[in-house]
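User: Predict the complex.
Assistant: Input components as received:
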Amino acid sequence: MVPSTKSSPVKSPLSSPEASTSSARTSPVSNSIASASLEGQSEQLSEQIKPAAVEEESKTSIDSEEDDKPLSSRLRMKPKPQKKTSSLVSGKRPLDEANVSKQSSVKRPKVSESSTSAKNKQVSAKKEAKEEEDDYFITIADRAKKVGSDNKSSVALTKPKKVTKVGSSSIKKTIKKDKKGSNFSKYSKSTKVAPSSNDGQEKWATLVHNGVIFPPPYKPHGVKMLYNGEPANLTPEQEEVATMYALMKDTEYVQKKTFRNNFWNDWQKLLGKRHVIQKLDACDYTPIYDWYQNEKEKKKQLSKEDKKALQEEKLKQEEKYMWAIVDGVKEKVGNFRVEPPGLFRGRGEHPKLGKLKRRIRPSDVTINIGKDAPIPECPIPGESWKEVRHDNMVTWLAFWNDPINQKLFKYVFLSPSSSLKGQSDKEKYEKARMLKDYIGNIRAAYTKDFTSKDGAKRQIAVATYLIDKLALRAGNEKEDDEADTVGCCTLKVENVQAIAPNSLEFNFLGKDSIRYENTVEVEVPVYKAIIQFQAGKRGNDDLFDKLDTSKLNAHLKELMPGLTAKVFRTYNASITLDNILNKETREGDVSEKLVVYQHANKEVAIICNHQRTVSKSHDAQMSKLMEKIGGLQGTLKELKTDLDRVRKGKPPLEDANGKRKRNLTPEALEKKIANTTEKIEKMEADMRTKEDLKTVALGTSKTNYLDPRITVAWCKRHEVPLEKIFNKFLLEKFAWAMDVDFDFRF
DNA sequence: GCAACCACTTAGGACCCGGTAA
DNA sequence: TTACCGGGTCCTAAGTGGTTGC
């Protein structure tokens, strides 16, 4: 991991605890699902719906033929998933001291044994990786032919229950570096992971790490801010918090009343009642702001060598915290840096905006580490950890209470590239793939319930439909001290407007206070049900008053083992990518294929409502491009005129400066025209893409929703270098997906 | 049945840095 | 040489969902 070069300008030794588009969105759902005749359907909700593929091996899709059958013939009893018993291996953090050892009383065992075994395992892992690499000796195209003949890709497409052999040895032997020298397995990680990391199971056997690193103590700068135009004296603690505020001068936060009020309340506690500073409005933080800008500039002006030296120094300090050894394997730690103090930057209209996030000390931090591992030395002399635990039912290495909301915790986890995270990532996508086999029957079941006499059932059906069709989030209840955002189950009456004959207009703030605006045509029974749910209610009342996420998820679990609302998002995102890639990819050069990928990625981002704010320079950038295109069009016109004249035996026209242009042959002019036209087309395409994507965030879906195996397999099939799609972070995160068969379909 | 608690995933924005056009 | 831009990295907020205890 590249260490952050960001400086933490505001650090304080505080200790007081509380001083502390309506765009035409692509619907992933076919409209055919509403027509099913469901006469005779059993009302047994406790039955799990068996995947269609299991019932009818030859059936390839969730089509109406199946839906037309009586549900009794489509539903079969499936054993309920075993309820987890709370026994010795409870996944919960124990409240008592049974699993806790106080730092002082813990004897430090020698590290040698585990580290030796770690080394051995790493050596053997490396050896395996090398052996795998040596096996690649056939081109991708040959491999495609070979595997294609052995295992027709159409089979993969038509048999929904096909189990994909990730990294099967037969396939590996047919892989070779592609023509461009990019081979996928160089990114794959030969890790030995437990078959499942389900809850209620041990996450690791041995865990060694060095704890966390704290931000350096606050260094007072002594620059005086002004109060009523006069320099004001501040203690280092007061100055630290003033500096936090001063540095936010250019942000929108300071425009918000809540932010200013919360900051003032917390800062005033530090200032004390009798301080000369009595109101925020009379404060002028400019001297501190200017000082900081100056410091920043000085830093920028440092020589390359000095910058490098600083970076190396930081790396040296942090190196030991960057790694953990999990079951003998060295793994990256994610967020090993304790969050520095600062002013709370919540999203949207968060009621706690601007509150002081006090400094976290070792006495706030609980460490989780293997029983036999040495307890990390507390990096701040004279202080000690709050607690040391040895809980292998969880994956966190450390946690502390969130100073803004004491009920919440901040965890230190392994990096997304670790085997532990990779394993759970893979399980997530496997679950979403499983939904593919159930979705037909699930859709048929909720369609039937749109008109159920049972109001709760009707609400569950409509909510599930919205989650499926619009990829809405579940929508847990929120506390009063959080931003007022909603998901499906918490939609308010005012968030949905029925538009005759059968459209719904959604408008609400979702996660991160990102607005969801979408008008969508829905099944008529859904439309009618929504109107009915709204009847007699006020705008701020719950649309789904008989429903919450627990009830919804409990119901979903009856339909498929492990099914929850969020699985639909993963499923719809991944299946959309898979479908678009396979439908739209044509023979051509890599850049054309990348356009297809980006288009698919964009569709998914729109479905999931992944937005970003338009960059400040967007308009200027567009104007510049327009200008350039205009210039090129002028050139093109001139070239065409010249060609015309040359063909008629006349000399070319004079240029803009009145100078005679060089005589060119018609062929040379044609070539120039072609080049200029190509340039214009490329620029226009760039412009369209830029405008198209100005509010769309593509990264979130790539990182969290798109099964990487779809991408890897597609790259293999179409000889697209994976590095064109996955950056370093994603290549590492998805190491588990690299050995997928080239014919993998989601 | 429900609230509280806990552990984990998902999310957008800030900031940095290197490549490239002017 | 400088300015600009875009991608990468880091940060941490904000979700989801399981479990527990009353």
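The first strand of chain A starts at residue 100 and ends at 101.
Let me know if you want any component modeled separately.
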